[in-house]
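Supplementary Text 2. Reproducibility record for the structural model of the 222-residue chain.

All settings were left at their defaults, and a single model was retained for analysis rather than an ensemble. We include the record here because the model underlies the residue-level annotations in Supplementary Table 4.
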Amino acid sequence: MKNIKIKAALWIIFGVSILLFFAIYRIQGSPDFGFKTIFQILSAVVSINCALYGLFVSFLWKLPIFKGWLVPFPNLNGTWKGKIRTTWTDPETGERPGPIPAILTIKQSFLHISCVMRTAEMTSRSLTSGFVLDKENQLERLVYTYDSNPIETVRERSPQHCGTMDFEMVKENKEIKLTGGYWTGRKTTGIIEMHFWKKERINSYPKEMDPHPVSEVRENKS
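Retained model, structure tokens:
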């Protein structure tokens, strides 16, 4: 993951270190500027910089003030809601199902991001994930590979499989939507569009959401 803009980060580290060095020297009030004093001050500067880095990685990176010029990726933490449109064909009907309701929960830190997508029939979890950011080529994407595990009652027609998801992060009315395509090891593809729903990360498919269209059709036939 391209976590930070290196040039800006180096200037910040250099500037903060210089300010800390002279601030600590003034606070100590010692006229001596020998090797021992310099070493003690540098040790304190390194310790403070490490503490500031810890704060930045844990919390500060999320602040809007750092967005863009220092932190190149958005904060996607929370639950997203949308639809899956698949190319998979139902062998019983020979037709593709309608849009499949889905949620996507994202857990993101400064150094790591994981994604879990859920429908009424399956749960898929990211195995590897990261941002693809290339300003020159106008690329802002979230890409991950995943392992999908359908519920037991549908595994006969929907076996466990792996796949890859490629989301483009599109800015729309000051908000971000995730839109992109996927492909799987069982030779199916599709497109997905997700909109931010809530900050809470939901760990199960909500009962109030619509059922899976394939299950709905088969239940109506029975």
